[in-house]
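Review box. Two proteins, two foldings.
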Amino acid sequence: MVESAVMEKPTKGSSTILKLDAAVIGAGVAGLYQLYRLRKQGLTVKAFDTASNVGGTWYWNRYPGARFDSEAYIYQYFFSEEIYKGWSWSERFPAQPEIERWMNYVADRCDLRKDIEFSTTIKSAHYNDDTGRWTLETDTGLTIDTQFLIACCGMLSAPLTSSFQGQDSFKGKIFHTARWPKDNIDLSGKRVGVIGNGATGIQVIQTIADKVGHLKVFVRTPQYVIAMQNPKYNDNDVAAYKARFDELKKTLPHTFSGFEYDFVEDSWKDLTPEKRQEILEALWNDGSLKLWLASFSELFFDPAVNEVVSEFVRGKMRERLKDPALCDLLIPTDYGFGTHRVPLETNYLEAYLRPNVELVSVKNNPIECITPEGIKTADGTVHELDVIILATGFDAGTGALTRIDIRGRDGRSLKEDWGNDIRTNMGLQVHGYPNLFTTGAPLAPSAALCNMTTCLQQQVDWISDCIQYLRDNNLNVIETTKEAEDAWVEHHDAIANQTLVTKTNSWYMGSNVSGKPRRLLSYIGGVGAYRQKCDEATADAYSGFDKR
């Protein structure tokens, strides 16, 4: 039986106090499952979300073209076969409206809404050394007193919305993709500028190119892209993937990336050039992230192998672009395939061949500011626009937590700590912050390099089991030791620094945020290997963690 949350009567002039065993920040993929798990364990628990409904990233990212790049049948919860099989997807990579409906379906099937406070932002979370509990303050005036604090804030949920001087002066409309309005935005006949051509920008560009009057795309860093193959599903397709429930549940947690596929077994050096080409062609034709995450592991370590694969992708892009000038601006040459996030796309490159689409390179002619009329570049040109779309990304991994005033032991600040050096133990706890658990945080695969549902479910399960262990053993507080955190950071860096990913500037390395400490945000040792490390700590009575 789940106990009811205790609402303490406030003293005169104070706010309402809600007393909990556990507070969960976020009602996305991780938050919903965390709420489900802890409630099943009998804890008094509530989740809190700034949004007005469930969904997390799939609530906020409702921009034109938003969709999965994980296959729908693996971007799933596997704690319930009934829930898995009770939902049928319409296509391989569904769009945001369908994904949002699915998340509402899960929340309703598990009756989670009654324990979620929507339209509520956690402003601060302070640890009390004397009580071993956390005090949270919300923007609604609610004070929360909780033993455990679980941050399920999302790895890409702190958008960089104020990127340019003069944004407030613009006479038209400005939208950030991660804060897209629910109301339909009519772009027909408008002069639209899109800033950013990462995975999100690509989805926007390819979707609106034939709908706007004129489109200007401001490109700084060209991207390698893979043409998406997105077939519609019929009843037989749906039945086929549902029949794989047990197989997928068993195998996904142990692959390199949490997807259903893994690297080819043959070593690059043992294959003939013809055989390598044959494998690359097959992976390309799959139209998924398979070329990136299930081709040759040497792609991430060996510059010569990476260059061959990179040139293979460049060739595919040249075939479609044809125009040498566009090829120069849209095909990367100064970094290797797979060392950035690799987007899937549908007719993205062809959008630039349209007469109403114009590419503005800002690599050597950066955006200086936004004026009342539009976007001004360093050469003095003002690009007049009616609408500006910011696909400018996020303060990834850390931003969702550092935007909350989180204070640990002796009042230490997480924002200050991570501003100096980004450190965690397995992305699950931070030294100095007892009883604070994190999902989607730095130095775990879930920070970037994973099918998110695979990794987030694993982290939620580990956290839930850890809390159950504490309760079973009459323990109240757990905190990673400094020694264990140091050891994990050293292990993480040792693997990361062998790869080509750390040689490239990208949001994976925090390079998109001025002053952010440089470290690969995501553990790159593999999802299966990470799980094994977590399981080893569990089996050894949570070694590396102080418990009292």
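Next protein.
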Amino acid sequence: MAFDGVTISAVVKQLNDNVLNGRIDKIYQPEKDEIILNIRSFKSVYKLMLTSNPQSPRIGFTFVSKNNPNTPPLFCMVLRKHIQNGKIISITQPNFERIININIESINELGDYSVKTLILEMMGRHSNIILTDDKYNIIESIKHVNADMSSVRQVLPGLKYIIPSSNGKYDTMKIEKEIFMKVFEEKKFLNLQSFIYKSFNGISPIIASEIVARAGFEPSVRGDELNEFEKNVLYEKFVEFINKIKDGQFNPNIIYEDGKVVEFSPIETLIFKNFEKKYFDDISELLDFYYKKRDILYRMNQKSQDLKKLVLNNIERCVKKKHIQQKTLKEIKDRDKLRLFGELLTANIFMIKKGMTSFSTINFYDENMNEITIPLDANLTPSENAQRYFKLYSKQKRTFEALKSQIKQNDDELNYLEGVLESISNSTQEQDINEIRLELSEEGFLKKRNIGKNKHNIKKSKPIHYISSDGFNIFVGKNNRQNDELTLKTAKTNDMWLHTKNIPGSHVIIQSNGNDIPETTINEAALLAAFYSKGKNSSLVPVDYTLKKFVKKPAGAKPGMVIYTTNKTCYITPDEQLVSKIENAE
């Protein structure tokens, strides 16, 4: 579901219930488009996140910890100057828009109390966080919008703040029957879903479908197909729905289909009544859960684009090389026949005359003694023709011997690069990306000058830590350095080691602590191994498991590469919902 007016209304209610009259204790800006406010209220201390991330702009309490830059960005310093230690005096949602205004009372440079407004606009790529004074003059914004970027509305320090246009939509919270019916007549040729979400602020297509469903209609039904009674039913259900929002009747839940998240909703929905759902105590908890993975993917994608391009280019090079190698193998597959021709020509040297273009003889190497015809070069003597075949055979034999090691080397490199690509997708922190960057530099794929002095400042990241339903610790490596560390240093002799069979993925370790590992824990660890692999979107993924003592690293092998014996194999279909049920100890 879009972060629409209904979801924002649920957030506003939660904020008013918890941080109204609270004081802003600290302010951070961990990302270029995100700020964190530490707020002390009479109830507790809260960490409020506001993000203008174009992929998922939102606001809510968060439990996710992030590293902050050593030097605070300009916007962060401006906020600290104007609203740090300020008191939150009101939190509103103007016109049921995708906007939240937080009014903060603080002391200005003259020692007088003044009110500043922190505004979060959640409008896709136009999202922004803006600080204004009590006259709505813009003090600063996290994104500047000049005339070249928008001729309609500029957002720059010193300009007057203007609320974004509603594009002719009506304030959902103030709709009366007369207005509703008037707009209905104007748009009666639209289907009911389009009529609602195109006419009223803060209503997303899904919420529009929900209102229509509660009225007993299909979203695709056109307005001109309704009679007077049905129009009144639609209006009554619209009002009933809005009144529930006004009364704060929220029930945050995430909707699943076939084990995968398909949607979230701040309310109980009729249109998803037959779907599996997971309920949350409050809207912030839901949003933290729903957006956590999406945010990580977005942030990591931003920070790792150059690495992905580098790895993909090298994978493409390996694939092309493999194609050439396979083509060459095909061309020399009959090399033994060249030696046979040379030997048969040598054995029959006195029967061949210069100028002949072919020679037929009995193949005495064939148990059936079949006749064979050998092509000849008419310009060469019989001896020269025989030597030509021996030379061709020797050349192709040398090519084959060289190809064997080249093919293995290329296949190993291809497997390694595919593993690195999977590690990039499993990265959840900037340290993970930095470790991969360092690894690629050490393996010669990245110029060392691109690492520079930061090599020794790269913090060591940690593997993902789960606890099985039986209470066993399970660790999942996120990159090759972690995989090697887990398998070769952390794991004990009788710990369990798991990895997808012939598929790039993470090393997974179950700590046994000298105890027998139950089947349920092995199955949960196998699920994690399949989920954190290239096969995460497949079904019946083969996962090998064995004791750590049977896992070895060959001399000179690339990071993350091991060999193992005495293993068993199970088949697992990765399921994100089942993974979420395994306790994450992070």
